Amino acid sequence: MMLASPLDGIGILDAAIVAVLGYAVVFFGLILLMCVIIVMGKFFIAKDKKREALNAAAKATIAAVPVVTPAAAPAATAPGSAGKLKLYDVEPKTAAMLMAIVADKMGKPLNELRFISIKEVK
């Protein structure tokens, strides 16, 4: 038994109109999908530019902080410090992170530990 279709026995002109309307619906869906993708792309590009601007501002702030050289450092150390620290091929920010991680893993306060030098192993 064959199922009866409402399009059985239509003329060639009606079939052409149905086909054109079908193509129009498909292309309309594709155009909508393309618009959604373009809008999402612009949103993420703007988000990345905003993040880059914030990173640049943070780097400029870090660069504006004066770096104390060992020759200009005061002779006395601050209360609670454990002396001088020598850094070899390590940025001060990285050294501070490493010291905080070591203090956390050992379960001791940072001012009870003494770091003599930090060197990057290559």
Would you kindly provide a brief summary of this structure?
Helices cover 56% and strands 5% of the residues. It contains two helices and two strands.
> Mind describing the biggest β-sheet?
2 strands, parallel
Overall average pLDDT: 82
Percent of residues in beta strands: under 5%
Number of beta strands? 2
| Overall SS class | mainly alpha
Task: Indicate the topology.
Layout: H1 12-64, E1 86-88, H2 92-106, E2 117-119
Parallel strand pairs: 1-2
Keywords:
122 residues, mainly alpha, two-stranded parallel sheet, 2 helices, 2 strands, rod-shaped
Description:
With 122 residues, the protein is mainly alpha-helical. It is built from two helices and two strands. The chain is rod-shaped, with a radius of gyration of 34 Å.
